Amino acid sequence: MKRELSEKKRYAGAFLILCLLVLVFLVINVCAGSVTISLDDILKTVKGQQTDPTIADIILQIRLPRALAAAILGGGLALSGYLLQTFFHNPIAGPFTLGISSGAKLVVALVMVLFLGSSIQISSMVMIGAAFVGAMLSMGFVLLMARVMDQMSMLIVSGVMIGYICSAVTDFVVTFADDANIVNLHNWSKGSFSGITWENVAIMAAVIFLSFLCVFLMSKSISAFQMGEAYARNMGLDIRKFRAALVLLSSILSACVTAFAGPVSFVGIAVPHLVKNLFHSSRPILMIPASFLGGAVFCLFCDLLARMVFAPTELSISTVTAVFGAPIVILIMIRKKKEKAA
Amino acid sequence: MKDTFYFYTEGLTVGYHGVPLIKNIKISVKRGEILTLIGPNGAGKTTILKSIIKQLAPLGGLVCLDGRPVDEMTARELSTRLSVVLTDRVRPELMTCEDVVATGRHPYTGRFGILSAHDRQVVKESMELVNISEMADRDFTKISDGQRQRVMLARAICQEPDIIVLDEPTSFLDIRYKLEFLSIIQKMSRTRNLSVIMSLHELDLAGRISDKIVCIRGDRADRFGPPEEVFTPGYIPQLYQMTTGSYDELTGNLELAPIEGRPEVFVIAGNGSGTAVFRRLQREGVPFATGILWENDLDYPSAKALAAQVVAERPFCAIRPEVLRQAKELMDSCREVIITLDMEAVGEFGEGLRELCAYAVELGKVRGKGCHPLSCKHDVNSDF
Fold first, then answer.
1. In this predicted model, what pLDDT tens digit does every residue of B268-292 receive, in sequence order?
2. Which residues of A touch B (CB under 8 A)?
């Protein structure tokens, strides 16, 4: 009983920290930039008493949607990574390492170039749809590879290769598309949270929160699946349906992120791992909300650095997430090796 | 008639990808009974178990639980009646042993899998039952194989099943854990009226714990019945297609192949004193003869298995002169005699043995001073 109590305290504390961090970073992300904004300004703007329309615009039209997007998409990405790790029983599986992000990116780029040529406006939903098609194509390929390869490390290698192929084709398409609008596309194909509108935010929030809800409702099934397929089946889990749901949800999540922010690397692997250590537990019912919050914090932090470090030049978001994420992947692999040796 | 069986199969055919591996399996088990599958490696024991627990679709036939085909049961319904301990290696992250055991409550918990007070109580009792309470807070990935297997058993018990299916549960355990594990299973089957179906490699243990045994051989279940009907003399070497060595169905005694050839050493054994010497001679590659052994002597099975020649007498009879003569002739052709039997323990039936000993001394072939060191260490009387 004592253990339970201390565990509960630990979990509550960890959640509190994550929520506070999300809040703090949201505020910092709005405040910091080429024009520094004070807390006072934010409060005034929120209350609708802001007298300076430029500042109100910066807050409401540029920084706040961007910060919210970073938080929501970051959360979605981390969750997608968590689902893929569960699915493949592999701690370094993620939308980026399995080539799912890149697949989504390729199809979105193709659709964009196609539509740019015909000067038709593309809605967010079309983008998400395109990204989803791309994500499912990559996922399908990865699943095929998983049947052939019994070694998980090989699966990751093949995922990374798919990622490179898709990126190469995307670069090719982007380079030869001859339009001034392509500058945006170029930024996007490297990964960035810039240029997000409120409409975008509304749609991504709807898609990602809905997916989050579905995943959360599956937390019991996920915990059964953690014991391995055979045991999960004996516990009454319909493996086929469960696997399909997992593939679908993780693809939707990463597709949604890619549609709005392009490929963002390593968040899907690093965040679930960090959160697991923070909670010292792998219970899905904790990990799902915690991964989401953790992803939000991670991406807010990284976006802040991307904007600020070499201001006014902006770094691509993947550059920053890689700097923090890649070492964590290496750490995981070293730890795995040690565990096996022990 | 069928109603008395809690579990039975009829005409069950199992295999992979539509290719039948074992056909027409008919087995049954009552509440509280233990059924064990034996058979050579790769015979398909795991395939049968997988088909029984609905992890593999049977190619034909029927599997019934509590009078109903398992096909008609929902996954959840089955999960509250049947639980499993498999050979799959489970590597859950950051889970304590208690967490792992608690996963057995999965079929009973609500939408989010939160454990109720009752669930916690069942988890606690299950852990007590298999003596792992003190390991509750330890990391599951950091305990030994023997402990892990007990945790998985507690997990299966925690699922509150009527029948439990175990695939080679004792394979990686040392003898202490093997015995402990099987004792728990026996206790469970008795106290909780739990039916058990498992596969075992240890024939001796299978024969001791099982109420019924199924032998898988080729494409069929060759024999099915209580151990005394299954383990008839000579059956096991046949079942496993043993080409070397021997197995004694009664004692579970396993011996290597004997050294063939003209006996070079004669061992006067008996009362269990000779077996160690037989084995040493086998290791050294020396063909030997032994006698005179009553057919019910402790040394007789190993003598039969290892000696080039055995001079034997019918049980509970005094040694007849022709048997004694035969022993003496054999001794004549040997270069050495080893006496492991404590002659002082020989009673009135053993007059012939005394005479044989005297004959050996006369021939001057006795190694040592009429008494081999091994036999002096041996407390012969303790065998009775």
1. 999 899 999 999 999 999 999 998 9
2. 3, 217, 219-220, 223-224, 226-228, 230-231, 233-238, 276, 280-283, 285, 339, 342
CATH value at residue A31? 1.10.3470.10
Flag if A220 and B109 touch (Cβ within 8 Å): yes
Give which of A193, A210, A246 is closest to A86, Cα–Cα. Answer: A246
Alpha-carbon gap, residue A164 to A99, rounded angstroms:
8
Q: Report the SS3 class of residue B182.
A: helix
Nearest of B225, B203, B217 to residue B35 by alpha carbon: B225
Q: What is the ipTM of this complex?
A: 0.82
CA dist., res. A122 & res. A108, Å (int): 11
- Answer left, alpha or beta for residue B116, where phi above 0 means left and psi between -120 and 50 means alpha: beta
Three-state SS at B53: coil
Q: How far is CA B332 from CA A267, B193, B263, B289, B323, in A?
A: 87, 62, 10, 11, 14
Residue A276: domain span: 2-341
Tell me the C-alpha distance between A40 and A53, whole Å. Answer: 15
Q: Which among B222, B279, B233, B221 has a CA at the least distance from the CA of B255? A: B279
Residues of B in contact with A236 (CB under 8 A): 74-76, 78-79, 106-107
Tell me the whole-structure pTM to 2 decimals: 0.84
Residue with tokens 């080429």: A34
Cβ neighbours, 10 Å, residue A172: 12
| Integer Cα distance of B166 and B210 in angstroms | 13
Count of domains in chain A? Answer: 1
Contact A339 B141 (CB under 8 A): yes
Convert the pLDDT of each residue in B322-378 to its tens digit.
999 999 999 999 999 999 988 888 888 888 899 999 999 988 888 754 444 444 444
